[in-house]
Amino acid sequence: MVEVSMTDDHLHLEVKGLDKLWAFKSQLDIPFRHIRSARYDADAASGWWHGIKLLGTNLPGVLTAGTFYQHGRRVFWDVHDPTRSIIIELHDERYDELIVEVNDPLFAVEQIRARLGS
After folding, report:
1. How many CB atoms lie within 10 A of CB 113?
2. Which of 26, 27, 21, 10 is nearest to 116 (CA)?
């Protein structure tokens, strides 16, 4: 799971618990100007194939965490429950997309979109 927080110009994602170990990452700090979009899409986070694992953990149906190469893009995953995941599309960043599980996905997407709109 990832905890979302925001400053005036950055989105901060902190990987919680043992997911830090499984994902090989403890946090991500993304400038809002590098975020294309944010959406809730549980279907996109479901399934067993999440790309070619570069660094991380993939236990189908249990956990996907770390860096994957998927459809020609570098994607960071941290998902146990796809129904609580959000997708954040980026540009000019190390990752092209972030797919992360959050406590309240609809609220997180609403908050990110509000920052992008301002």
Report:
1. 14
2. 10
Non-local (6+) Cβ contacts of 76 within 8 A are: 23, 25, 28, 66, 67, 68, 95, 97, 98, 99, 100
Quote the pTM value.
Answer: 0.91
How many helices (H) does the chain have, and how many strands (E)?
Answer: 3, 9
Eight-class DSSP state of 116:
H
Give every CB contact of residue 4 below 8 A, 6+ residues apart in sequence: 11, 12, 13, 102, 108, 111, 112
* Residue 26, token pair as written in the block: 């403890």
The model's pLDDT over 8-40, given as tens digits with 9 standing for 90+, comes to 899 999 999 998 988 999 999 999 999 999 999
Judge whether 47 and 60 are in contact, CB under 8 Å.
no
